[in-house]
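It is worth pausing here to work through a concrete case rather than discussing structure prediction in the abstract. The textbook approach is simple: state the sequence, then state the predicted structure, then interpret. We follow exactly that order.
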Amino acid sequence: MNPPKTALRHHAVAIIANPSSGTNANDEEAISRALDGLGEGARLYRWSPGADITDTVKQALDDGAELVVAAGGDGTAMAVAGALVGQEVPMAVLPLGTFNFFARGLQLSEDPKQAAIEIREGEAHAIRVGMVNGQVFLNNASLGIYPAILKAREDIYARWGRRRIVAHWSVVRTFFRFQRPMHLRLRTDGLDMARRTPLVFVARSAYQLDTFGLDGTEVISEDGFAVLIAKGESRRDLFRLAWRLVRKQAQRGRDYDLLAAREVEISTAQRRTLLAFDGEKRRLEGPFTFSMTSEPLWIVAPPAAGKEEAA
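Step two, the predicted structure:
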């Protein structure tokens, strides 16, 4: 498969900004610096809250964009990726979010102008990304306590603003409200099992697993899902697990089980369950079916990251 050429050889670059960009002065300055780094052919597109980002991506492609840059956090990158899977036009990420796991996994600088330069000098690589019930995700999807944390975080952000300390407080608040683990049935590559757990975490990001000292990176390198099933029955168990995660001391077998799979189906006792994917959340009817996209996504990575990936 021949990789598409990047914007270094072409000049039509579309930057698609998160809806919050433009209301945040720091984000506005970051986008301005990135535009300088990408050159004269760079054009900014904004998508408004509630709008389908696919329409914005289509408009950029109709305008002749030969590289699409997602400017925002993991949720923005996921949305743009969903519109570009199967397209020959490559995608890059300008990290402006709270955590930026996907951009960090690409070894992109968090300085916007330097990241833009790295994108211009980078090469496109084909990757396969995860899907759950038709929704593309880049880092992870999960059921249980983590989606509840995201819901609490959204409420706290609305009151106190988007800061990392606020994100951490949402974890504490959700743990105190925890009642009981979920009852699930899982089918992984044909293997059936029943589990009682506060969290199922389906990962596609080796960088995110490394960040928390979790096993499963070798599963992802082999183009599979690392399915982590947390162990815990009480609030105390959750706080203990969170502390071990922060200290990178969580152990497979004691704190979680790990399954390797290319296809996963999860059924819950509830008719509708809150599902999280790359920092976003949605309440959906199960069962939840995880699979890889049949077509690739072309991702631009800095030269050093590309050489490391090839090795």
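Step three, interpretation. Residues 145-160 form the longest helix (16 residues). The longest strand covers residues 182-188.
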